[in-house]
Amino acid sequence: MAAAAAEQQQFYLLLGNLLSPDNVIRKQAEETYENIPGQSKITFLLQAIRNTTAAEEARQMAAVLLRRLLSSAFDEVYPTLPSDVQTAIKSELLMIIQMETQSSMRKKICDIAAELARNLIAIPASLG
């Protein structure tokens, strides 16, 4: 459990570095982010979005990154997840929308849910 918390803390630092005005730091953070496996990205991003004690900028960045992941790499990531994890992601997004108090953040989370739904509708019948 401590290892997972440490990894999540590292991910928050990475989110902060992705927002850095320093091009070198930001570029290094982008390379690190790209090397994280898709399923781990989804887990870390959802945890960051859900964490209302995290910096608002980091939460917003996590929301944008999760939406981008679902729009650009959906076919590589989502269908490979176990069905119980897929169900958990859908449930988690709906719960976060209900619990979110910041309207700008709620809109970003709704955008994620809409992107997920768009991709799920687009899945060929043989996969869905």
Topology of this protein?
Elements: H1 2-18, H2 23-34, H3 38-50, H4 56-72, H5 74-77, H6 83-99, H7 103-122
Word description of this protein:
The protein is built from seven helices and no strands. With 128 residues, it is mainly alpha-helical. It is globular. The mean pLDDT is 91.
Multimer state:
single chain
Q: What is the mean pLDDT?
A: 91
Spell the H/E element sequence: HHHHHHH
Cα-based radius of gyration, to the nearest Å? 15 Å
N- to C-terminal separation?
Answer: 34 Å
Key traits:
mainly alpha; 128 residues; 0% strand
Q: What is this structure, in a nutshell?
A:
The protein is mainly alpha-helical and 128 residues long. It contains seven helices and no strands.
